[in-house]
Design brief:
- The protein is an alpha+beta fold.
- The protein has one domain.
- The protein contains four helices and six strands, in the order H-H-E-E-H-H-E-E-E-E.
- The protein has a six-stranded antiparallel β-sheet with strand order 1-2-6-5-4-3, with helices on both faces.
- Strand 1 and strand 2 form a beta hairpin.
- The longest helix has 19 residues.
- It is globular.
Length: 126
């Protein structure tokens, strides 16, 4: 993967540089060609701030060659509702938290919960 990133570094930097971190931000819903492409959430703003530059590189890689399009707010809302709604199912895990999976039509995702709090979640279109 490093060869892919290295070969497109200029384009990836241009695309990812357009993303602005907001104070207190704990997640991002990336849209490519106007449609949801990835959801990444963590429970702490400082943790998300440190992850965002690397996440943006992945979002930018997904967007390379995609047509420009206006965001589809209905698709974004439906994606968030499915990923964050009751479609999460607990799975056996190790350590203090419990693993969760997203069991919604058209989505794949996984995360970690602890004491009823969603610690991290990643979701993508299936």
């Amino acid at each position: 993967m490093s060869d892919v990133y290295d070969g497109r570094r200029g384009e990836l930097s241009e695309l990812s540089g357009a993303v602005v971190h907001r104070e207190g931000q704990t997640g991002a819903l990336a849209l490519v060609a106007g449609r949801p492409a990835a959801l990444d959430l963590v429970s702490r703003p400082d943790a998300f701030a440190s992850l965002l530059p690397r996440l943006c590189q992945g979002y930018a890689l997904s967007a390379l060659g995609a047509p420009a399009a206006e965001p589809d707010p209905n698709a974004a809302a439906a994606f968030l509702s499915a990923a964050l709604g009751p479609s999460r199912v607990a799975r056996p895990g190790t350590g203090m938290g419990r693993s969760v999976g997203v069991a919604a039509a058209g989505l794949v995702g996984a995360g970690v919960e602890h004491d009823g709090e969603l610690i991290a979640l990643c979701a993508y279109p299936a």
